[in-house]
Structures
1.
Amino acid sequence: MLIPFTDIKGRTYYVNPVYVRVVQTNKKGQTEICLSFTGTGWATANASITVEDDPGRVAQQLNNAMPLAIDTPLGAVIDDDAAAAASQAAATTAASG
């Protein structure tokens, strides 16, 4: 999910939270959203967006928009029926061989 942020100059950016590396406060007390990504054109370099918002609030917005698959450890998405079937198949294989 893309999140809209308006920078200190009034420009609105729609940020993909997957590419955010750091949310930090600069010397002026403003919040910087640091992005890192690869691609073509302007997207080949790191970039940052400076906003007049609380860094904790910015981080929470980014966390809420993260895809579930990124936050879930590998293997944790297996449902109970699939796990039981795999266990039964392993037991059958061990018993017959």
Note: Residues 3-72 form one domain.
2.
Amino acid sequence: MLQVVFVKWGEKYGPEVVDRSVRAILKHTTCKVQFTCITDDPASRFNPLVAVKPFPPFTASLDHLKNGCRLKMAIFSPGILDEGIPALYLDLDTLVRGDVARVRDHIRAHSGIHMLKSHYVPWWPIQHWAGPLIGNKYYHANSSAIGFYPENYYWLFDRFNTIVVGDSSETSKTLRCDDRFISCYCRDTLRVFPASLVTKFSAEYMSPSHVYEQVRSRLPWVQSRRQRQVAVTFAGAALKPEMLTKLKLGDEVRYKRLKTYWNHLDFQNYWTEPVA
């Protein structure tokens, strides 16, 4: 069993985007999956397989917490998810192309909280032991996908509500966005999903150099890894599905200092094909 949770607020994404993710997961999965969506619009017509839940009480207003995607902290609130069952949070701009049972097995096999690679230097495994040397620094992972056991992280929701100020006087980077907060306070139990399971498009399919990316994409072990990926998330304003669906083969795509030539019609089809 795996429980998959989504968080939707505002009007940028409709319930049909949640439905697309649900159907893609069910198409590939070999395990039983239950779905939950936390939303400010429970009256919308979600897939009947999705348990729709309102946001839990925060100490700051929902409008305030939309900044930095901090409303995603709701997934750690008691009463949202079932205890004892591995949970996988996915951003709504995540493409599912493989069996989420593999992600479930990974969460079961490795304790802690699982997020996505962010920095190119993967120093997250040593931060616990390097604490006396690095002080208050921490590996800043990406929260487009999060794997965890709900009962182990109720304290994180409580800690967030204790610390968050709820007004514009917040200056700490740790409080500015959900993934920084999780990365900071869970640094001792933080793990990063292997790229063969869940990855960011920018980290896996883009590089600082076009030549480097073209060479890398031809390497047999890279091709094998990409074939086995369960989900690819499109973090970053320049990489949102509505932007990618307009691309033509060979178009240059840029995100920060990374770039690639677009050659991913399978990804494009995922976002353009009607939800069956």
Note: The chain has two domains: 2-192, 198-272.
3.
Amino acid sequence: MPPTIPEEARVIAARIAELFKRDQEITVALNQAQRELLDANDRLTSGLSAEALLAVYGPAGPDLGLSGKKPPVLAAESPISALEEVAQAIRSAFYTYQRSWEQRRQLAFDVGEASAQLAQVLTAAGFSEKDARAADVHALAEGVYRRSTVT
């Protein structure tokens, strides 16, 4: 008969499950920031001609996947304002991206710490170390023990 699941393990497992939900939220924010960075970059650079890049950067200029279309910032009624808007969009998306990665780094630490506590509680309750480390936190949070199939 498998060992019973201590209430403390259920609480820790529920906390880890919540941390996993937070990780999903952070991942969505990271993906959104990445899309915003790519969009701003496209507004800034899409359609630049090779000749324009050579004039700006010289023969060693960057390859920006040129399309032959005029960049939206240059086609705008006020190109300077359009450039300022793109620059602000890039800064904002970059800061969001950077902040989200920092939150994810901190979250990884919290998950690791809680996982170690969970393994300690489960092994003290009679679980093997392997089963304690491989336990499904969602099942544990619900009070259901499922033996690990990991070898």
Note: The radius of gyration is 25 Å.
